[in-house]
Backbone:
């Protein structure tokens, strides 16, 4: 029996009996949320929806939630993943819909599935990004991407709280495509912008959209005149054909578009 | 009027370039965006500090919710923008905006600004300027919003008299509805008499002070000679508003839940308003009298609704001294029972040592975290505590902390002030003895040496409508020197290693003192500081003492007064104080006698438990002390059942 110090209540937390994974999106103005902001919002939504989340034991209990690597502050995502520990069985689709209803518009639960034996972290090793570059000519972007792919190594400097780091963007790039289209969320008839779609392998440190843009500046002096808008389209395990396998697997239940 | 276009498309490209952009995007749970066209009166409620501080503010949340409940009213919120975004907004011509629908501030009918502290004054000027609203009330036209100041600092709005149109004294629940009615009628009538008529009608509304309708003259000694209304429709004195029955106003029911991190993340309920403990330094306690408790039933309803609507895992039981609620034991036990097993904790942010007991502490921490205990003895010596009427004995303190340490707490925080009237070095140095005694008692009770005591010391600022309104403020050099001696005394004993010491230097306090007790001439200093870049004066990284001192010298000395004249000078009884025509209900003669009692170290009891001492508030506000038992019970709170719960 665990020792309880005088005056400290024994922790009443129930054990974890099931785990459900959800895929959620971070959209629109909510793309400015940091990971901590997302985590707080989700924790509160779980409480409002009365989902039976299990808590850690001890002096300062916290909910048992496991997050996939978060999309950086300012970037949108269609593919963030969260695993939720539960004190009783809940049907994943029902959980996904209840959580979605409790979350603010812009944090949207897209799908849910029961957790299998493989850890969430072992189901993700790469991400696909869409980066929109308003007012950048497609040809200029194509030329810059060509120069980036032709290089053996492209180092980008990143300032972190611990100091400066160098990241090799070229090594992390698996696949890159250039196209043109309309900036998402703008009315039809708006001028086209150049669009970069990139599959990036997750290393340490993780290569972010900003790093890819930094690399285009390094190799070709490309600097977008207005801030680019990045959206993570997918995460998963990279297969031989360069596709990403769905981390939710075949038990996936779609909860919303 | 067509709805003003949203500022968001222009703001959005700037956001990736600023720190913490999430604070500017709105989207909080329980935020409201109402239709612009169907609202007869449109309020922007501003808290003139950073979003992380302003969002949890209860005053704004209460008014926001109750104004939006009216079908003819729209209310949105606005917070101060940090200098990084301000620079980008100026560069790109983006106006000040509300976070709800990102509408331009200048398009609203009324801007209500809540001043918890005087150090927010420069941020008001930033917001007005970014909104394209003339800084001076006198320069505004019929289409400009009415700028209304509220909150505790509005009890002496004279330093910002040139920049605001109206100051509202006291509780806001009822008067915001009356202001709305006045504005709605004036607009519906086709704005007769223009802006002047609207302001006259507001000046005729109880609790509303329109500084522009008063002429202030000064004598040869620099003091005020007279304050006279300039229009027969304007009252000579303005009395504060008092919400008599808090149970009639159970707000906020649906607290705002921010996306961004803020300083308080909890569902808060004000369990009573007012305080008659009579601490002589405490402006809040003096201007919010009398004590009006909420009933258990209302508290239970508000907490239930707030927790259900927010998902917060902490409930804050707010007031000026929460353990003084006559039914605090029932409240905490009832809530702890109701939230058993849900990881929901309770907090009592303001507790007195003598009203506190360990059962209360155990209830508070039953379902959640056991953080440190915080008490505010305020003064280090028995003598100075008599002067300030904070009658907490060292024996009470030691007994309480001993019990707490014995029950498993490890840390106690103690708050003090430095620079109090009649204070000597010895009064401050005794704080060290108290801290050492806490460590000794804690070690004995805990049975081990791992106990800590943090002492936190702030500079005392004399405030209007308190017995200390006549007192001389201590100069920062005096305060800094006393704190040096205190630090040496703390470290003179080995026990000092278990004592943490936190303090602020005295300079910002002196400027707060200038703004707190200043008159209209201080407005020039505020404007000059702002023009020279003064922003966010409550934040040490933005505050510049030299800028304030230089601006005060340049603007005040030609008028024959000075920074020292407003701060470190003791006022005589007969001097007309800048706020004497603003009525907090307190009898001026009673305040003066209480000041004399302070100087001779005489205590004043609490009128909740001893006979009335005629402070004047009850007869002048039409309210009475309301303390329990209320004869009600906490409603049986129910915890929502979620998916998969079955049956």
Residues:
């Amino acid at each position: 029996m665990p020792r309880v110090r005088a005056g400290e209540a024994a922790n009443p937390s129930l054990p974890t009996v099931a785990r459900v994974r959800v895929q959620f999106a971070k959209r629109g103005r909510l793309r400015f949320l940091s990971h901590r902001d997302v985590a707080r919002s989700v924790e509160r939504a779980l409480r409002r929806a009365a989902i039976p989340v299990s808590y850690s034991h001890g002096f300062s209990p916290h909910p048992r939630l496991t997050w996939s690597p978060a999309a950086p502050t300012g970037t949108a995502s269609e593919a963030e993943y969260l695993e939720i520990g539960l004190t009783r069985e809940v049907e994943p689709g029902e959980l996904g819909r209840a959580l979605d209803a409790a979350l603010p518009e812009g944090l949207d639960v897209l799908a849910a599935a029961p957790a299998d034996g493989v850890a969430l972290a072992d189901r993700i090793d790469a991400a696909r990004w869409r980066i929109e570059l308003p007012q950048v000519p497609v040809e200029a972007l194509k030329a810059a991407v060509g120069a980036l792919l032709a290089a053996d190594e492209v180092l980008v400097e990143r300032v972190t709280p611990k100091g400066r780091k160098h990241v090799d963007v070229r090594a992390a790039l698996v696949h890159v495509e250039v196209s043109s289209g309309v900036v998402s969320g703008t009315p039809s008839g708006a001028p086209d912008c150049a669009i970069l779609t990139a599959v990036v392998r997750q290393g340490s440190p993780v290569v972010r959209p900003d790093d890819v843009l930094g690399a285009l500046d390094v190799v070709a002096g490309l600097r977008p005149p207005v801030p680019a808008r990045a959206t993570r389209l997918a995460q998963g395990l990279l297969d031989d054909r360069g596709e990403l396998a769905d981390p939710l697997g075949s038990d996936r239940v779609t909860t919303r578009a | 009027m067509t709805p003003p276009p949203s500022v968001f498309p222009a703001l959005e490209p700037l956001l990736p370039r600023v720190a913490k952009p999430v604070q500017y995007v709105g989207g909080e749970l329980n935020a409201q965006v109402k239709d612009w066209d169907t609202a007869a009166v449109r309020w922007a409620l501003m808290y003139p500090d950073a979003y992380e501080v302003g969002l949890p503010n209860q005053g704004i949340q209460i008014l926001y919710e109750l104004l939006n409940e009216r079908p003819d009213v729209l209310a949105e919120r606005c917070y101060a923008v940090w200098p990084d975004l301000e620079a980008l907004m100026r560069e790109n011509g983006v106006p000040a905006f509300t976070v709800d629908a990102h509408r331009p501030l200048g398009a609203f009918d009324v801007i209500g600004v809540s001043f918890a502290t005087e150090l927010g004054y420069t941020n008001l000027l930033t917001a007005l300027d970014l909104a394209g609203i003339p800084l001076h009330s006198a320069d505004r036209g019929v289409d400009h919003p009415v700028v209304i100041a509220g909150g505790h600092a509005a009890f002496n709005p004279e330093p910002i008299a040139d920049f605001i149109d109206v100051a509202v004294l006291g509780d806001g629940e009822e008067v915001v509805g009356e202001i709305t009615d006045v504005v709605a009628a004036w607009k519906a009538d086709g704005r007769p008499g223009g802006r002047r008529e609207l302001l006259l009608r507001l000046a005729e509304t109880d609790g509303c002070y329109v500084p522009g309708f008063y002429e202030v003259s000064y004598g040869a000694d620099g003091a005020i000679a007279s304050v006279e209304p300039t229009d027969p429709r304007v009252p000579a004195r303005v009395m504060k508003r008092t919400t008599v029955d808090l149970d009639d106003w159970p707000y906020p029911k649906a607290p705002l839940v921010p996306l961004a991190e803020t300083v308080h993340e909890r569902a808060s309920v004000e369990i009573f308003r007012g305080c008659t403990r009579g601490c002589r330094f405490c402006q809040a306690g003096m201007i919010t009298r009398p004590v009006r408790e909420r009933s258990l039933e209302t508290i239970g309803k508000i907490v239930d609704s707030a927790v259900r609507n927010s998902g917060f895992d902490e409930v804050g039981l707010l007031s000026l001294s929460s353990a003084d609620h006559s039914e605090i034991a029932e409240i905490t036990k009832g809530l702890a029972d109701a939230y058993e097993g849900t990881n929901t904790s309770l907090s009592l942010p303001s507790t007195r040592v003598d009203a506190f007991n360990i059962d209360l502490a155990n209830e508070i921490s039953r379902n959640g975290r056991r953080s440190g205990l915080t008490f505010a003895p305020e003064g280090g010596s028995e003598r100075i505590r008599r002067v300030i009427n904070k009658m907490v004995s060292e024996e009470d303190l030691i007994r309480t902390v001993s019990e707490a340490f014995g029950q498993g707490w490890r840390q106690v925080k103690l708050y003090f002030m430095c620079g109090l009237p009649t204070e000597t070095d010895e009064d401050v140095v005794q704080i060290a003895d108290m801290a050492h005694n806490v460590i000794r008692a804690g070690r004995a009770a805990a049975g081990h040496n791992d106990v800590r005591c943090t002492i936190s010391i702030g500079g005392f600022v004399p405030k209007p409508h308190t017995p200390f309104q006549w007192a001389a403020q201590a100069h920062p050099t005096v305060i800094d020197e006393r704190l040096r001696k205190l630090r040496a005394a703390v470290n003179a004993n080995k026990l000092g290693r278990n004592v943490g010491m936190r303090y602020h230097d005295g300079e910002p306090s002196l400027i707060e003192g200038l703004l707190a007790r200043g008159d209209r001439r201080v407005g020039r200093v505020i404007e000059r500081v702002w023009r020279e870049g003064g922003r966010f004066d409550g934040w040490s990284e933005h505050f510049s003492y030299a800028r304030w001192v230089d601006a005060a010298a340049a603007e005040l000395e030609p008028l024959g007064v000075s920074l020292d004249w407003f701060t470190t000078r003791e006022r005589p009884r007969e001097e007309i104080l800048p706020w004497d025509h603003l009525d907090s209900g307190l009898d001026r003669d009673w305040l003066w006698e209480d000041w004399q009692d302070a100087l001779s170290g005489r205590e004043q009891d609490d009128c909740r438990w001893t006979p009335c001492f005629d402070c004047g508030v009850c007869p002048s506000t039409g309210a009475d002390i309301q303390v329990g038992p209320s004869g009600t019970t906490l409603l049986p709170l129910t915890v929502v059942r979620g998916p998969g719960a079955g049956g």
Notes: Chain B is about 35% helix and 15% strand.
